[in-house]
């Protein structure tokens, strides 16, 4: 950052300048002199007797202020009011009406442009006001809304083996939503060998407050922990900070670049050779805060070009990590309730009461502090951690936690390092636990946790030679057994094909390496071919070929074929069809070998109740929008500039895959509407609350247009340009041959006309039941007094 701290002190001085001048007086003078400001002493009135007043335009560092100020000129001396100079950010103090002699300001150079009546001032750039270029918030905050309705998601699956009994399962989710939040219940019904009946998963109420960035939950939930602790399922209540509901807020520190421009200039910013911003600059110091949401290491090239074409280029390295919180940001969560047990097997199995809470705080842009605590009967846990940026060299994290289960005390330590750039990235995380350490995840059954976990990964971009990945994993289980695994991968694109090669080895096993080779080829028209070869650590080979065609984005038919030779020498095959339309998607298929095969089928979709109707749809995982055009069918609708469908016979279209909390653009193609249809709005931006839906209404109405021929009382066409006023106050102009065009007329109409001979009126009836343009007249416009 160039000069940021120096400007900060100066800005604070300017911010409180009026208060210091009025109250602290001399103290303000001493303090602000440290930034080269100057206090004005009113001149002797006798010295102004011969001064000649002039009104001149001020120009500061070649930038016109577009203001004309009163100047007293006496010989070669010029006096200007303090208030006029201070209005442009110049550091002079005193009463606004006091006069300052420009010749007495040591830091100021000036000249008089007599021909153009301008006073040209030259000021050190660092004495001008700070200008902030751009803003961290790219997307203006648009409050998210929700209608009232219900969603029923379903996923039915049938599996029919040739050598066993048929099994059926129907997973479902029922969600009620409104401005008060959402209530969700999910589960699955199974019928077949091993289990029959309904299994409940989760039942929860959730409400999010975007203004405070908080989410409240009650019911079944998963605790929200930190990277160095576990999460558990609870049945209870919780509150947590939720930055996801505010897409306009950037929680991690972005680089801020500062500099100075002596004269009006243009600022260009390049990252990785790409221009990402270009803005005009006023003279003075500037701070750039409009960089994109980047992550990792890089270099920014900041180029300023002045009005003479002179350029100054500065290269500024940076490192950005989303694992940090920006200065002053706080993230937290707390949940309390009963531990969920036998999840997925028992519907209402809850154990002991427990509470868990986490907190993160951005102490500065370089340091984020963390803490976590858990409590249950016979278990207490507490820990602290930190994430710190190492300048341009990555991010390091460390944590320490201590637990007590009954009389047993244990501890956990964790340390890690991450670095990412365009060329390569590395990540190392090492966690140690002693034998007695326990948390809520190990609490119910008294189990112990792994003693050590070491993960080290790396990725290298070799550009035209592809990408290489490395990994090393070392895990020591609770019983002391150890497993170490290493892997190596390489991938590269070749035109319309992609190759991926990987190898892995258990370093505690003498059986050697296992290998895999994948080759994917795009054949166009949504078709792809895939070939794969695997060799396991025992030297057994597996060969597989697949050929498929994807379903079109907006619905249609897709298929997939595959054959394989298994390591034991048997042959395996599979085939499937996939069909999707706006209402649901269906899949059927068969797979097996020479001895047995299995036929399966799947149906997935949603039913939505909203705005007085029930709408079938593809599965809705989060938010949706119901577009309505007031009963007008066949209207084409776009979401974020992409065509998503046309309204049905009732003038409605459901958009099932909307991004929650984001103010997306919805529009109708007005140019394709019939001429007799009108709407006051063709485009809207709407943000929808998570887990809910909203109605986006485009009010369309059918209108009857009319072409009216108007004559005066002598039978001559009304003159061109004559103004006509409709009953609702709209003013229209009459054209050639007395023709008046009205976009909308009613059954009975009265129009007032400002004729050259005086005001007159025409009255007529129109058939509004037809979309054709009505041809009316000629009508005689009669003076109001004769009606």
UniProtKB/TrEMBL annotation:
InterPro entries: Fimb_usher, FimD_plug_dom, PapC-like_C
Species: Lysobacter yangpyeongensis
Domain PapC-like C-terminal: 708-765
The protein's name: Fimbria/pilus outer membrane usher protein
Pfam families referenced in this protein's UniProt entry, alphabetically: PapC_C, Usher
């Amino acid at each position: 950052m160039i000069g940021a701290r120096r400007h900060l002190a100066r800005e604070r001085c300017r911010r409180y300048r009026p208060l210091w001048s009025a109250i602290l007086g001399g103290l303000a003078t001493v303090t602000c002199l440290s930034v080269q400001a100057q206090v004005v002493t009113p001149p002797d009135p006798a010295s102004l007797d011969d001064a000649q007043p002039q009104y001149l335009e001020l120009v500061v560092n070649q930038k016109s202020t577009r203001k004309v100020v009163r100047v007293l000129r006496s010989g070669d001396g010029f006096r200007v009011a303090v208030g006029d100079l201070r209005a442009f950010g110049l550091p002079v103090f005193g009463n606004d009406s006091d006069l300052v002699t420009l010749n007495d300001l040591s830091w100021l150079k000036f000249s008089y442009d007599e021909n153009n009546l301008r006073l040209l001032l030259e000021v050190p750039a660092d004495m001008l006001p700070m200008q902030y270029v751009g803003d961290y918030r790219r997307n203006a905050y648009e409050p998210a809304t929700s209608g009232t309705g219900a969603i029923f998601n379903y996923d039915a699956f049938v599996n029919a083996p040739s050598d066993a009994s048929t099994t059926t399962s129907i997973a479902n989710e029922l969600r009620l939503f409104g401005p008060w939040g959402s209530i969700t219940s999910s589960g699955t019904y199974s019928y077949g060998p091993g289990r029959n009946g309904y299994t409940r998963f989760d039942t929860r109420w959730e409400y999010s407050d975007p203004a405070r960035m908080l989410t409240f939950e009650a019911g079944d939930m998963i605790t929200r922990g930190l990277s160095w602790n576990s999460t558990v399922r609870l049945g209870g209540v919780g509150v947590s900070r939720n930055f996801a509901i505010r897409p306009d807020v950037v929680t991690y520190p972005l680089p801020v670049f500062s500099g100075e421009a002596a004269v009006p200039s243009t600022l260009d910013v390049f990252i990785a050779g790409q221009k990402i911003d270009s803005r005009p600059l006023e003279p003075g110091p500037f701070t750039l805060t409009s960089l994109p949401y980047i992550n990792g290491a890089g270099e920014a090239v900041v180029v300023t070009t002045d009005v003479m074409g002179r350029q100054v280029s500065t290269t500024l390295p940076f490192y950005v990590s989303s694992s940090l919180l920006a200065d002053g940001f706080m993230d937290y969560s707390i949940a309390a309730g009963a531990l969920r047990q036998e999840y997925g097997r028992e519907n209402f199995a809850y154990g002991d009461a427990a509470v868990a809470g986490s907190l993160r705080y951005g102490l500065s842009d370089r340091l984020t502090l963390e803490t976590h605590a858990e409590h249950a009967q016979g278990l207490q846990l507490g820990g602290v951690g930190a994430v710190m940026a190492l300048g341009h060299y990555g991010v390091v994290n460390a944590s320490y936690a201590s637990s007590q289960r009954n009389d047993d005390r244990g501890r956990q330590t964790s340390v890690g390092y991450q670095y990412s750039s365009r060329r390569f990235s590395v990540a190392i995380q090492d966690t140690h636990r002693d034998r007695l350490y326990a948390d809520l995840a190990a609490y119910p059954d008294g189990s112990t946790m792994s003693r050590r976990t070491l993960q080290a990964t790396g990725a290298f971009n070799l550009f035209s030679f592809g990408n290489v990945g490395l990994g090393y994993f070392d895990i020591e289980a609770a019983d002391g057994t150890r497993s170490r695994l290493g892997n190596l991968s390489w991938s590269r694109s070749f035109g319309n094909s992609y190759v991926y090669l990987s190898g892995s080895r258990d370093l505690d096993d003498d059986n050697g390496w296992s290998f895999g080779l994948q080759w994917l080829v795009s054949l166009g028209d949504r078709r792809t071919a895939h070939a794969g070869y695997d060799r396991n650590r025992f030297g057994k080979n597996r060969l597989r070929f697949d050929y498929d065609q994807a379903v079109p984005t907006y619905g249609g038919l897709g298929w997939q074929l595959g054959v394989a030779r298994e390591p034991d020498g048997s042959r395996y095959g599979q085939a499937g069809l996939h069909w999707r339309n706006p209402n649901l998607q269906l899949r059927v298929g068969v797979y097996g070998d020479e001895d047995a095969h299995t036929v399966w089928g799947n149906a997935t979709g949603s039913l939505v109740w909203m705005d007085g109707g029930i709408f079938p749809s593809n599965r809705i995982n989060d938010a949706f929008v119901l577009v309505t055009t007031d009963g007008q069918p066949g209207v084409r609708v776009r979401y974020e500039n992409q065509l998503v469908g046309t309204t049905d016979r009732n003038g409605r279209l459901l958009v099932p895959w909307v991004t929650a909390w984001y103010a997306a653009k919805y529009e109708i193609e007005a140019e394709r509407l019939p001429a007799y249809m009108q709407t006051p709005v063709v485009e809207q931006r709407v943000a929808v609350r998570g887990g809910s839906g909203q109605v986006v209404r485009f009010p369309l109405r059918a209108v009857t247009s009319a072409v009216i021929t108007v004559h005066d009382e002598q039978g001559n066409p009304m003159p061109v340009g004559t103004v006509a006023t409709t009953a609702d106050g709209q003013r229209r102009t009459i054209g050639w041959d007395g023709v008046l065009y009205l976009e909308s007329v009613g059954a009975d109409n009265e129009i007032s006309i400002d004729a050259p001979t005086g005001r007159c009126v025409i009255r007529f009836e129109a058939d509004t039941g037809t979309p054709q343009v009505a041809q009316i007249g000629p009508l005689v416009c009669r003076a109001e007094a004769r009606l």
